[in-house]
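[#protein-structures] MJ: dropping Sugar transporter here for a structure pass
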Amino acid sequence: MPHSALRSNTFTPIDKNRPFGWRDKFGYLFGDLGNDFFFVLTSSYLMVFYTDVFHISAATVGLLFLIARLWDAFADMAWGRFIDTRKATSKGKFKPWILRMSLPLVVSGVLMFVTIPGMSQGFYLAWAFVTYIVWGTLYSTVNIPYGSMASVITDDPVDRTTLSTWRTMGAMLAGLVIAVLGPMIVFVDNKISADRIFMAAVVFGVLAICCYLACYNLSKERITAPEETKEKVNLKITMKGLIKNKPLISILAASLFLLVCTMLTGAVNTYLFKDFFGDATKLSMVGLVQIVATFLAVPLAKPLVARFGKKEVASTGMLVVSIAYFLIFFLQDPTVTQYIIISGIGMFGMSFMSIVSWAFVTDVIDYHEFLTGLREDATVYALYSMARKVGQALAGGIGGFAITAVGYNVAMEKQTPETLQGIFSLATLVPAIIYLGVFLILVFLYPLNKQRTKQLASDLSAKRQTIH
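AK: finished. structure tokens for Sugar transporter:
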């Protein structure tokens, strides 16, 4: 590899006045708390809002989600490359973009849930397409710098795993608030209320702004590439390195399938409880149990990873959640209580993948530097985010088409038994199969087990020292 290329992208400390600590952890937690106030709200209720309030067919909603997420995937990559070519400011390279773009992001999110009386169905269809695509694009301008920021807050592998854990806690807190309060706020007489969901969007939007401000003020970027030695980014070298990065490719595949499953179940679960179980408010309880299960996994993640490794812990968790959903499916006619308990056990297993997933990203960023000598945090993170957006696109499209395929009819007070069974299978058997696929990818394709990850850190450290 070119000696100059390695030198030009080697990160060095720029600020040690305040060492890494609790302020950074809380700051990073607040970032994903702000992100997920709207992300969880839209993934949980936007589809049913479009079908039951705007009266857009589920298949059309699926098409919208597919188009928007595919667009967002390319927006992620473009924004990541853009940020990697920008100079760091006195406040850092990444977090100023969070401050600049958070208000437009929140405003666009609120506009998605605006209902204007007297408008035609064609107007609502156009409104849905425009507002949702704009929101998704603006989400990239905040989420890409936020995700990339972890690698410049600290260069310590243990501290980076800690940041991944705190990020997950932020996402879970948002999920807890929306899962518990959401159904009680947005549903009236087992039907979604246009006025109430708009009110919820405004409240969560204000909370999101507060969280972004906290992230900006509490977190601190400490690492940057020296400006005087930077060379023009070589896209050819970058792409060649990305293609050869086996850990990146396999974790991209796992993330894609995982996001398909998460988004699909998030959309279908509303119909499962509203129609199959006949009580949408019970979503509050299942959300509470699943998120409590995740918080129970948080203190166990670090010692388990330290002993067994990220790959080993995450893959075991994926096997547990797959078995749980298979069990629910084979019960065929479970009670709400049975569903809540078994899915909670499954969520406990999947939590370990969620907790360490962002630490996986820092590992593949290190591997990219090892292969190419280029430290391109935003580009690699953007590619990872791009895969997640493709997963969301597929899930949104599949979710809408699948709900239509099983015969869901919004005009019917009670769905047919065949439709109810189809919804049940979408919410149980399909996730069980997908989670099993993620388990197999981690076990057989992802190469960075505990020993190889430690060796990578050692080799990369030695390579960096040779150029100083």
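MJ: nice. The first helix runs from residue 3 to 8.
AK: one more thing. Strands lie at 12-13, 187-188, 191-192, 223-224.
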